[in-house]
Amino acid sequence: NYPKQVKIVEVGARDGLQNESAVSTADKVTLIDALANAGLKHIEAGAFVSPKWVPQMADSAEVIQGITRHPGIEISALTPNLKGAELALENQVDEFAIFTAASEAFTQKNINCSIEQSIERFRPVVELAQKNNIKVRGYVSCIAGCPYQGKVEPEQVLSVCKQLLALGCYEISLGDTIGVGTANQIENLLTLLLEHIPAQRLAVHFHDTYGQALANIHKALEMGISTIDSAVAGLGGCPYAKGASGNVATEDVIYLLQGLGISTEIDLERLAKAGWQICDALNKAPVSKVSLALKNT
Ligand code: HMG
Ligand code: MG
């Protein structure tokens, strides 16, 4: 009983590149334009975070000003506080993304406050968004484990999700930041969350550190989740989660979905090309197995 259609949120240009130093603004613009041409409709293009914390995202305004905007393609950006939200608004971002975690330790390291303080900090962000008819997505990191405190209880994930929904988020993205979750753990977590939250309001955001992302996505699809975050070429990682590797590769997710007969309207070949292009700029090969396989056929 898979969903008939799946929404892909492409996070390569943000999550993928926030860990890469020395990517030019022009290369980021080329990447995002290529992703749009491949058919991606939801593209996270940057982060209006402190440049002292994540210098890699300091050119987000220039990137967003440089890309070609198309009707029907939503551009989103991270907005950790009012300052970030104001910058995102100035740069005509279609969707804000606020982010906190189910782990106190990670929240401190990543955004320098407690979970409770983060929620308070997001209030004016959501108010600004609502005044301007901008949708707000909420991220919860460390849903399956934390690089600093280890175990994270599903009840804690639920509590943070509920707080973000109460604030006004239309969707919550569940981040396995360090990619430690396995299918049975994800099943247990989603079983609890789905008792309280409709499936349409949940997205999954799996990093592939332990190679479990596709298995976890398959489990989530079986449970009715129809929004998947992924990064072209499997780029990614979080600078405040040591050892966290890339997001699940968009190419691999599209291949899985095609095999399951789920429509995505994404051109896999163009997508793979976009991945090779940014990887050439990074002087490495894509992590996507599908991309590597296509290259050899
Ligand atoms: P802080 O140091 O506590 O904040 O940082 P502050 O308000 O004291 O500001 C410090 C300085 O930053 C000031 O500059 C501010 O003006 C400036 P100064 O006066 O010293 O010159 N500043 C800003 N500049 C530009 N844009 C802003 C902004 N805010 C403050 N928005 C803060 C708190 C939240 C700002 C900081 O901790 C931060 O930026 N953190 C972001 C960390 C980050 O981006 N992490 C990666 C993204 S999350 C992730 O990857 C996980 C995810 O993928 C899901 C998953 O995988 O789990 C989403
Ligand atoms: Mg992430």
UniProtKB/TrEMBL annotation:
<comment type="similarity">
    <text>Belongs to the HMG-CoA lyase family.</text>
</comment>
<dbReference type="GO" id="GO:0004419">
    <property type="term" value="F:hydroxymethylglutaryl-CoA lyase activity"/>
</dbReference>
<comment type="pathway">
    <text>Metabolic intermediate metabolism; (S)-3-hydroxy-3-methylglutaryl-CoA degradation; acetoacetate from (S)-3-hydroxy-3-methylglutaryl-CoA: step 1/1.</text>
</comment>
<dbReference type="InterPro" id="IPR043594">
    <property type="entry name" value="HMGL"/>
</dbReference>
<dbReference type="GO" id="GO:0046951">
    <property type="term" value="P:ketone body biosynthetic process"/>
</dbReference>
<dbReference type="GO" id="GO:0046872">
    <property type="term" value="F:metal ion binding"/>
</dbReference>
<dbReference type="GO" id="GO:0006552">
    <property type="term" value="P:L-leucine catabolic process"/>
</dbReference>
<dbReference type="InterPro" id="IPR000891">
    <property type="entry name" value="PYR_CT"/>
</dbReference>
<feature type="domain" description="Pyruvate carboxyltransferase">
    <location>
        <begin position="6"/>
        <end position="272"/>
    </location>
</feature>
<dbReference type="Pfam" id="PF00682">
    <property type="entry name" value="HMGL-like"/>
</dbReference>
<keyword id="KW-0479">Metal-binding</keyword>
<dbReference type="InterPro" id="IPR013785">
    <property type="entry name" value="Aldolase_TIM"/>
</dbReference>
<keyword id="KW-0456">Lyase</keyword>
<protein>
    <recommendedName>
        <fullName>hydroxymethylglutaryl-CoA lyase</fullName>
        <ecNumber>4.1.3.4</ecNumber>
    </recommendedName>
</protein>
